[in-house]
């Protein structure tokens, strides 16, 4: 019923819309087994079906976004919608509505990394109760010869803003709790453009980008409580955040040239012994205080419709 709706939906009058609504109501009744006297809105809500107009508008927006974010090598990448006023097609209306926001749209490639690229090691446990006792606490005295650099990253979304923060600690001196060598925080942008997932990826990319080249034979552990970000790093796919994931792998390979090892570790929210994550959360919340502004806004997050 929605086939090629981007072509004919703008020519759909009240009579055609009534036919579509009748067909949609029959489909909703078949799904839910409701009576014929049930209202259209109730049938759609019970069946989980969007209204005709809203569904066609989302399809048109999705087509417009896909056309504007095509890879440069795509044969249709050079085509642009002409903003003519004589005939206002649905795609032209979408172009006028999104005027000024096209440059910051994220282009999602078919893959983030080549298939032969070696993926990073991510340690996490699907059992949250067991993961709460993973050895990632602040007491690293017994394993100080292994854990040289411990990094905790966090994201915050409040006050209509999304921010990130992190703490870097050198644990080679016997696990001193105050041996923090760096801390950072940054505001990504408004909440309607960014989310905590993107902020977590940017936080990890920033800390690896700022790591010096002189590190030798050290174990670098990046700990976070955002499991979705770690899953995206472990198995990059055709999804939002590809730019940050490429930055993470780029600077991870740079550190590996000095015989360093980099591991990503998920820490459960029930693990109260890992206080470094609390400090990272404090830094992230500083970036979402009222009045904060994004220094360099990244790409807009591609939201599914």
UniProtKB/TrEMBL annotation:
Tree of life domain: Eukaryota
Gene3D superfamilies: Ribonuclease H-like superfamily/Ribonuclease H
GO molecular function, one term: nucleic acid binding
InterPro entries the UniProt entry points to: RNaseH_sf
Region of interest (Disordered), residue spans: 282-305
Name recorded for this polypeptide: Reverse transcriptase
Originating organism: Fusarium mundagurra
């Amino acid at each position: 019923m929605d086939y090629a709706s981007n072509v004919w939906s703008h020519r759909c009058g009240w009579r055609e819309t009534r036919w579509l609504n009748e067909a949609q109501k029959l489909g909703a009744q078949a799904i839910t087994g409701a009576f014929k006297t049930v209202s259209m809105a109730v049938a759609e809500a019970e069946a989980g079906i969007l209204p005709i107009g809203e569904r066609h508008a989302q399809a048109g927006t999705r087509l417009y976004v896909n056309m504007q974010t095509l890879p440069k090598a795509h044969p249709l990448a050079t085509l642009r919608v002409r903003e003519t006023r004589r005939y206002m097609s649905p795609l032209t209306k979408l172009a006028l509505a999104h005027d000024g926001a096209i440059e910051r749209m994220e282009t999602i490639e078919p893959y983030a990394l080549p298939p032969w690229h070696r993926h990073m090691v991510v340690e996490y446990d699907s059992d949250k109760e067991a993961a709460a006792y993973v050895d990632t606490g602040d007491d690293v005295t017994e394993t100080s010869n292994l854990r040289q650099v411990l990094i905790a990253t966090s994201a915050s979304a409040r006050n209509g803003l999304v921010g990130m923060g992190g703490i870097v600690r050198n644990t080679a001196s016997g696990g001193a709790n105050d041996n923090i060598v760096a801390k950072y925080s940054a505001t990504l942008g408004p909440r309607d453009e960014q989310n905590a997932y993107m902020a977590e990826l940017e936080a990890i990319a920033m800390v690896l980008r700022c790591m010096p080249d002189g590190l030798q034979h050290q174990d670098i552990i990046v700990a976070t409580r955002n499991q979705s970000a770690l899953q995206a790093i472990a198995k990059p796919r055709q999804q939002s955040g590809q730019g940050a994931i490429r930055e993470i792998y780029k600077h991870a390979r740079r550190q590996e040239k000095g015989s360093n090892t980099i591991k990503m570790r998920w820490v459960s929210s029930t693990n109260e012994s890992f206080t470094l994550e609390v400090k990272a959360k404090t830094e992230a919340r500083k970036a979402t205080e009222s009045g904060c502004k994004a220094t360099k806004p990244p790409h807009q997050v591609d939201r599914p419709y």
